[in-house]
From TrEMBL:
NCBIfam families: trpS. A motif ('KMSKS' region) lies at residues 189-193. One of its GO terms (biological process) is tryptophanyl-tRNA aminoacylation. SUPFAM superfamilies: Nucleotidylyl transferase (SSF52374). This is Tryptophan--tRNA ligase. Its EC number is 6.1.1.2.
Length: 322
């Protein structure tokens, strides 16, 4: 089965991304045919600077390779390297109405926050449908926030097949409705936009500073503490086996451990969990030629699939040359 997903290079990866999205993608890699790309064209809709887009694109590639994306198993490329995707976007834009696109939550949310949208933000879901349909993806793992975009992709494919001829595969969404929301240091959902993230590839000093800033109540060292309501524990439990979890719960309930100690335990778990990924990351950052080579090979594999599909689509539409 062909599984495809994209990640926007819009900032540093954090524990929320890791425990919900990235671990799941890596799980697919060993079982299915995985297509994974860096959605740099989508990131243009919230463009800040050329330097930032370049840095985040490269860092995203390095991070994912360090975390275990294996280019021997997975087709891994940068979206803009396969320009067929923008051609297909134009064709697909005939198969969705303006009033449908006006219903997009992500678009409406940004506008409600005062963002002045370009036409690119409005047609964002069509580019996303194109990413999926160009590669005939059967399954698309995404976060809950992308559910409506997946529905657009299915609608577009169905309408296109009816209007012009059956050439597009209808994709199935793969959304974990129950994925726990990882809290940030302030207790709200961990998110780049709330500036409350713990970025696991930051320096040890940065990670320590973030962990030490996690909110807690003012219970004294000797008092028993409630793990259920503790943000420190909610994050920590993501790293723990069932038996480790039990003994940590015990430590909270017993009293005698201050929040400073409990944060120190969490910090140790984060550093231990990512130690080998961090050294792999440092190695890759010193070997950018290799990273570019991986992306080039990924581009070639992705483009072979994309070109075959775009030829079918052009034929179906009667695009010149015939
Ligand atoms: P951010 O909110 O920091 O901008 P993204 O929107 O880039 O994160 O999210 C990328 C992926 O990580 C999505 O699949 C999203 O659902 C998931 N994700 C992001 N933050 C969290 C979180 N706090 N808890 C669980 N999943 C998250
Ligand atoms: N819009 C997705 C996000 O912000 C990223 C994305 C772009 C994507 N194209 C895709 C995800 C195609 C899955 C399939 O998270």
């Amino acid at each position: 089965m062909r599984v495809l997903t994209g990640l926007q290079p819009s900032g540093k990866l954090h524990l929320g991304n890791y425990f919900s999205a990235i671990k799941k993608i890596l799980d697919y890699q060993s079982k299915e045919e995985l297509f994974l790309f860096i959605a740099n064209l989508h990131a243009l809709t919230t463009f800040r600077s050329k330097e930032e887009l370049k840095n985040f694109t490269l860092e995203c590639a390095i991070d994912l390779l360090a975390l275990g994306v294996d280019p021997k198993k997975t087709v891994f490329w940068v979206q803009s390297d396969v320009p067929e995707v923008t051609e297909l976007t134009w064709y697909l834009s005939q198969s969705i109405t303006v009033s449908q696109l006006q219903l997009a939550h992500s678009f409406k949310d940004k506008v409600a926050k005062g963002f002045v949208p370009g036409a690119g933000l409005f047609t964002y879901p069509v580019l996303m449908a194109s990413d999926i349909l160009l590669f005939s993806a059967e399954k698309v793992p995404v976060g809950k926030d992308q559910k409506q975009h997946l529905e657009f992709a299915r609608d577009i494919a169905e309408r296109f097949n009816t209007q012009f001829g059956s050439v597009l595969t209808i994709p199935e969404p793969d959304i974990d409705e129950n994925t726990a929301t990882v809290p940030g240091v302030d207790g709200a959902k961990m998110s780049k936009s709330y500036k409350n993230t713990i970025d696991f590839f930051g320096t040890e000093k940065e990670i320590k500073k973030k962990v030490m800033s996690i909110v807690s109540d003012s219970k004294a060292v000797e008092e028993p503490k409630d793990p259920e309501t503790s943000v420190i524990f909610q994050i920590h439990s993501l790293f723990l086996s069932p038996s480790e979890k039990e003994s940590q719960i015990e430590k909270y309930k017993r009293g005698g451990a201050g929040y400073g100690d409990l944060k120190k335990d969490l910090l140790d778990s984060i550093l231990t969990h990512f130690v080998s990924f961090r050294s792999k990351r440092e190695e890759l950052a010193q070997n950018l030629d290799y990273v570019h080579q991986v992306l080039k090979e990924g581009k070639e594999k992705a483009q072979t699939v994309a070109q075959a599909k775009i030829i079918d689509v052009r034929k179906t539409l009667g695009i010149y040359p015939f």
